[in-house]
Design brief:
The chain is of the alpha+beta class. The chain has ten helices and 18 strands. It folds into two domains: 219 residues, Phosphatase 2c, domain 1; 165 residues, no CATH class. The strands form four sheets. A six-stranded antiparallel β-sheet has the order 2-3-4-5-9-8.
Length: 390
């Protein structure tokens, strides 16, 4: 077993004028270190395409989660999916990426644009084996994973971008490779890379997409542990135990909360230096403490992080905000969303007397809900989460 992991992100935009997307992405975890990603593209757009792509991705992912081999899944889908009598094409095409033990990846492709593989920030022309199942050409590739490998799957809305407008023949594969290669040097997360690709397609369509457009990016990277301390323990006698556990963990350390950072300052025997520099009007200033990577205010800052996390999982409209700002919430987002792969939460259950003011909209339950919601968002990003309460 190695210390690699997969960072997975995707984004879709609908065909102009349609409420539903005809593309669908499903991600299924198989045990601790194996993942199946399915990108299906339904024929046409709108409701019918949405149903077809959702069914395709769900059937494949469910069968694989039940332990069937990729070959069995592909045979079942290929035999099940009808072919349009008018157009002579399948009602739904698909791309499957199966990551096994974070060591190898199997790529199965049926009529979707070929997956782009970037290795060492260069296009990698990987081998493909053609299979013929019920008259359908399906390509299979098996590769050993390397650190910093990037796999870019897409629906045909990407190469069709700009068709008949900016480009006569759409956005050529070579041009997409050139664009994504330049992006790969910047160290963006998989989610941000998929967002940038789809946003560029949207621009080429003149913000009126002529097809459902989806990009799913898988980025192979080393595991990066992160530790976040939020709130003092309910029992004061547990302060030293909580701090000892927190600081004994490898990786970077983040502390959220004034009282919590004061306890950490006392435990470390180092001065806490508060800042009065408001980087953002809606996020309190940060502080500095030797031995800690980031010290921020508590509930208000974490609530802003949660707001960014929900957007990151959705349309990802605010990534430019937290990617470049230097307020506490933005810095936490960069550490948790971009750097961390394994996150340990140390959450104190002490009730803050200041929060008992009836004029303040902050309660103990809100604080606990923040932790639960943020943990769930981070899990959906593919992070390994552990929460310890004190």
């Amino acid at each position: 077993m190695n210390d690699l992991c997969a960072d997975i992100g995707y984004k879709s935009i609908n065909h102009y004028g349609e409420e539903l997307c005809g593309d669908h992405v499903d991600i299924v975890e198989e045990g601790e270190n194996s993942t199946v990603i399915v990108l299906a593209d339904g024929l046409g757009s709108g409701v019918k395409a949405s149903i077809l792509s959702t069914l395709t991705s769900k059937i494949i992912s469910t069968m694989m989660a039940a332990g069937l081999s990729i070959e069995d899944c592909v045979k079942s889908i290929a035999a099940t999916l009808p072919v349009c009598s008018v157009r002579g094409v399948a009602y739904s095409t698909f791309t499957i990426m199966n990551i096994v033990n974070n060591e190898t990846i199997d790529i199965i492709q049926y009529d979707n644009p070929q997956v782009i593989v970037l290795r060492d920030n260069q296009n990698y022309d990987y081998p493909k084996t053609e299979m013929n199942i019920d008259g359908k050409k399906i390509y299979k590739t098996s590769l050993k994973l390397c650190e910093n490998d990037i796999f870019i799957a897409m629906s045909d809305g990407c190469p069709h971008a700009g068709l008949g407008a900016k480009y006569n023949f759409g956005w050529k594969r070579e041009e997409i490779i050139e664009y994504m290669t330049a992006v790969s040097f910047c160290g963006y997360t998989a989610k941000n890379m998929s967002t940038m690709l789809v946003d560029e397609c949207d621009k080429l369509y003149g913000h009126k997409p002529g097809d459902d457009t989806t990009s799913c990016v898988v980025k192979i990277r080393k595991r990066e542990p992160m530790n976040i301390l939020f709130g003092p323990p309910s029992n004061r006698d547990d302060c030293n135990r909580m701090m000892a556990l927190f600081f004994s963990k490898e990786g970077k350390h983040i502390i959220c909360g004034g009282t919590t950072s004061s306890i950490a300052s006392k435990y470390l025997g180092k001065p806490l230096r508060a800042s009065l520099n408001f980087e953002s009007s809606d996020v309190p200033p940060t502080a500095e403490l030797e031995g800690v990577d980031l010290v921020t205010e508590g509930v208000i800052t974490v609530n802003k992080v949660l707001e960014y996390a929900k957007d990151y999982l959705g349309e990802n409209k605010h990534y430019e905000h937290w990617n470049f700002k230097h307020d506490g919430a933005s810095m936490i987002c960069r550490l948790l969303f971009e750097e961390a792969t394994d996150i340990n939460f140390y959450v104190g259950r002490a009730i803050n007397p200041a929060h008992q003011n009836p004029d303040l909209p902050i309660t103990f339950s809100i604080k606990m809900n923040l932790v639960e919601e943020l943990s769930e968002c981070l899990r959906k990003m593919g992070k390994k989460i552990k929460v310890s309460y004190f």
